[in-house]
Amino acid sequence: VKGAADKLNDLCRDQVVGDDINQTSELDREYWAQKAADLSSLGLRVLALCVARIDENEDLDDIDASFILRRPKFLTMVGLVAILDPPREECIDSIAEAHAAGIMVKMITGDHAQTALAIGYMLGIAHENGIVYTGPQLDEMGPEKLKDVVKECNIFARSSPENKIQIVQALQEIGEVASMTGDGVNDAPALKAANIGVAMGVTGTDVSKEASQMVLADDNFSTIIAAVKEGRRVWDNLRKILTFNLPCNFAQGMSVFLPLFLTELEDIPLTVIQVLYVNMITAVTMGLMLACEPAEKQIMKKPPRQPKKRLLGRFVVWRIVIITIYMAIAVIGVFWGGA
């Protein structure tokens, strides 16, 4: 039998003596709990290996976890196995970039609390005071307490699927935009509840992919940060295009429309050919240049924009109006002076 060390430790009756699996002695629970905690604090995932002696006449066709849970303690502790699953180097760099961009990164895992905390230190998301909450602790909290916890804590261990939904909803209730990543069937409810669900394209299940708004083709956290950067670039470039094209088009329209009310002008400043040239050559060419402009160097140093922020804000609208007026006056003035 293999499983979480802290869980199986409570289900064991005795332990193996030396290398002889047939010799047992009284179980030293504190010893095994301390060894598991020591290994977990190093960022290792710890599994306990146990053996159980079962009567040969018992029916084992439908054996499952409940087979152990519903019986008196009969397991024998054999040893612990520690597995190292270090985070990728590019993931650490991406998390640092996310922090610089004002994005909070939180880890929700089913691992032991000490393991999760050690990995959190490796990733740079754990607080210096070592705050970590487990699923059972979250279950005992009220809604208001949970909101405070999800704001201050970045690491959640021994979490159930219900805990993941609780964390996502608590973040949304305090005004945050929550993005959830996952690959399993039990992640699907939280992926669906999040503002942006991100599923793993390689290891993810079909259920998790269908519940998500985005699927990572390479299962790499760095791709999410790259997508955020690209989204910010598109937003900035779109505003640049509008800031350039709208004054040109509005000024062009005013240059044609206003002279109709000026009796001193006998003709319209812009001919049909000039209007077509501005629309099809100048505006389109500059628009393509602005659309393909690379991201600014400091784009990932800016805080996230507000979800309700308008594409054309008050400042941009005023710039469009002022530049439109200046351009229209310039065109009409030059034409008038020449006439």
UniProtKB/TrEMBL annotation:
It is found in: Membrane. Residues 268-337 form the Cation-transporting P-type ATPase C-terminal domain. It comes from the Eukaryota. InterPro entries: ATPase_P-typ_cation-transptr_C, ATPase_P-typ_cyto_dom_N, HAD-like_sf, HAD_sf, P_typ_ATPase. Keywords: Magnesium, Membrane, Metal-binding, Transmembrane, Transmembrane helix. This is Cation-transporting P-type ATPase C-terminal domain-containing protein. Coiled coil: none annotated. GO terms for molecular function: ATP binding; ATP hydrolysis activity; metal ion binding; P-type calcium transporter activity. SUPFAM superfamilies: HAD-like (SSF56784). The keyword Metal-binding applies. GO terms for cellular component: plasma membrane. The chain crosses the membrane at residues 242-262, 268-290, 311-336.
